[in-house]
Amino acid sequence: MKSQACIALLCLIVLQGCSAFSWKPCTDVESKSSIKDVGLTPDPPFPGSTAQFTIDATADVEIAAGTLDISVAYHGFPIYSESKDLCDKTECPVKKGPVKVALEEPFPIITPPGPYTVRITAKGKGNDAPQLFCLDVDFNVVPQGSATQQNIRPESS
Q: Residues with Cβ < 8 Å from 11, sequence gap 6 or more?
């Protein structure tokens, strides 16, 4: 009986390490766009890599300028946050219709493997400015050199 429990636990750990990222719109925030797709490269990220997030959305409002707020949680605990200029990550002014946001985040070589959640929020400037979108991206960082990381093929230039 103990061996079956150990095998089941080992399978869960292996599956968790191999699982692809997932994303969902924030449920606690009203947004003025619909998110169509989110990409993460490499998937999964590993220490020393640079994660590239791409967000395809459709804006319901126009925003002249704004911020992109990023907050990172590890095992559910907040560990890092920063704000970036939205216009450095997409074309401004943001007009109604299709919007693509590209974001790169380096993972230091000392990044511990495990589950992470990144909240990405795009909003206009000012207190009354509309929020373009908010989403949560869940993924696992795998150890550098792991079998999962070795299956990643670098993009050709």
A: none
Residues 33, 58: contact at Cβ < 8 Å?
yes
pTM for the structure as a whole: 0.79
Q: Is the dihedral of CA 83, 89, 91, 97 positive or negative?
A: negative
Closest CA to 130 of 64, 58, 63: 63
pLDDT tens digit sequence for 136-157: 999 999 998 765 544 554 444 4
Q: Per the structure block, which two tokens stand in for 13?
A: 């750990």
Q: Which domains does the chain possess?
A: 20-150 (2.70.220.10)
> E-assigned strands of 4-146?
22-25, 33-41, 50-59, 66-74, 77-85, 97-106, 114-124, 131-141
* Cβ–Cβ < 8 Å for 46, 146: yes
What's the Cα-to-Cα distance from 153 to each of 25, 57, 149, rounded to whole Å? Answer: 29, 27, 9
Number of residues that make up the chain: 157
Element (H, E) at 147: helix 147-150
